[in-house]
Amino acid sequence: MKKVLLILVAISFIACNDSKKEDKTSEGVQETKVEVELYTFDGGSVEAHNLNLFAQGETYKGESKKLADAFYVVKHPKGILLWDSGLPEGLVGNDPFTTPDGAFTISRKDSIVNQLSQIGLTPSDVDFIAFSHIHFDHTGTANNFSDATWLVQTPEYDFAMSEDIKGNGFYDPASFSELKKVEKLNGDKDVFGDGTVVIKSMPGHTPGHQVLYLELANAGPVLLSGDMYHFQENRDRAIVPQFNYDISQSEKAILDFEAFAKEKNATVYIQHEIVDFNKMPKIPNSLN
């Protein structure tokens, strides 16, 4: 009888230890979330004096609005991605500039090199640079990152290198002319291969417009809008700006964007919306 009891105790002890091992293994799986950090920077501001440009018809006739111009750094264990780069640095230290047509007044307070230094980075630390699109207010400081690989949709790149871009005031090809390391994309791109940082192709605003999806350990799923929308009312009413490259593509992209946001239950940050910009942690703090 004693032998039987000893055997039962031994079995119980082994089973208990195995159970603890399984628990630890299970806990270990749960704790192996990839640590991704999202830093938000001020790339300047835009005073839109003719807000009607951001709609069809006479939706915003006579209205004006101040817009943010954010750019972002994504820190991942496998590398660093710069998403957009803000307005031209020639604005730093100068008075705000109003475009000849009077539609916009733009300004920028600080250089990108100085801003990155506040989180311990230099331009050479950046592995990848990607623009939501190549309008001048998103590519203004890009030439600082000639060592980085430019992740760009093929239609966007082809347009950037074409004759069609010349003379169009929405673009400044010289601002990204030093980006020689190019990876052309034909659709979505899982930047680091683990699903935590994904570029989503959403053309229409420009030929190769794209948005950025992030899976953050604490904040959860996040979507950076690019110029899918410029402010919250655009999103609420699914309004397409009259200056978009392709209106019908833009309308489809809105449907795709909202379906994806719903599928992922993602928090959407509209990059030009001041309210959304103010929600983000300010450097040196990050969303993670």
Automatic annotation (TrEMBL):
Q: What's this protein's family per the entry?
A: Belongs to the metallo-beta-lactamase superfamily.
| InterPro entries in the cross-refs | MBL_superfamily_lactonases, Metallo-B-lactamas, RibonucZ/Hydroxyglut_hydro
Report the domain of life of the source organism.
Answer: Bacteria
All copies of the Metallo-beta-lactamase domain together span 68-272
Task: Quote the Gene3D superfamilies the UniProt record gives.
Answer: Ribonuclease Z/Hydroxyacylglutathione hydrolase-like
What is this protein called in UniProt? Metallo-beta-lactamase superfamily protein
Under SUPFAM superfamilies, the record lists: Metallo-hydrolase/oxidoreductase
Q: Keyword set for this entry?
A: Hydrolase, Metal-binding, Zinc
Single GO molecular function: hydrolase activity
